[in-house]
Amino acid sequence: MPGPRLGPWLELSVEVDNEAVEAVSEVLGRFAPGGVTVEPAFELVEEGLGARIDPMRPAMVRAYVPARDLAAAERTAAEAAEALGHLQAFGLRPIGDLTTRIVHETDWAEAWKAHFPVLRVGRRLVIKPTWRDHVPDAADVVLDLDPGMAFGTGLHPTTRLCLAALESAADRGHLAAARVLDIGCGSGILAIAAVKLGATTVLGVDTDPIAVEATIANVARNGLASHVTAREGSLPSGQPAYDLVLANLIGSLLIELAAPLRDELRSGGRLLASGIFVDRETDVQKAFAGVGLAVVDRVVDGDWIALEAVRPE
Q: How far is CA 199 from the centre of its chain?
């Protein structure tokens, strides 16, 4: 089950070796009418879009006990901890200490907002969710954002990399009065940042109509409707060549679209490409080189890479 929807609950958590998951789940299930969840350890695969369970790392087992009577819930937790201790007598692989925390009744439709703080990216960019307060420094470039159901909150490394690359490009004068194309505009975060960093106009395109709606709403929220337009679509854009193209996609798409991306750039124009999982960087670089795009910079954030490429004059 996905977890409790009513509360308060006392959450019981224990980190266990994979060989002990079934036994621990059975024990905790005796005490937990709120259910038991198992969160296996994983690693990112398929360019970061998928996950592979890593059997060499421990899993996390969680259970939920009603906590309206907190003293009774704590007694139940103590009984569960004792029962888990007895499992060790059977020589199972490592079972960690039981930890607890209160989970209060929550409006689950709004709960995801707790995971989106005010976020500073680079030196000047600040991503401010619409429900957060922020007193900006004099040099701050603040992006007011409501991600809704669209991808692009600034929390994901691919978005952070693209924002940092944008700020760097602006520092070098490449956004001054620039025309920008944002492929896969998501929430509109990159388009908004581009204008606030100096671009004159941005066209955002996305194949997802929800993303287009989110971009339009966020652009209006930032007072930039006269600078940014968004529509459903992909490449080619059908517009005159751009000074800068933003492509926060995935490696396989960047490879497939290498030539169309080049064609959207004027001579001397720049491509900022993000969403490249580390094991695809070589293939993306080869694809760019194959269509005449010269990679001039790369930035790394964990398992993710962003590349800056130029269409030669």
A: 25
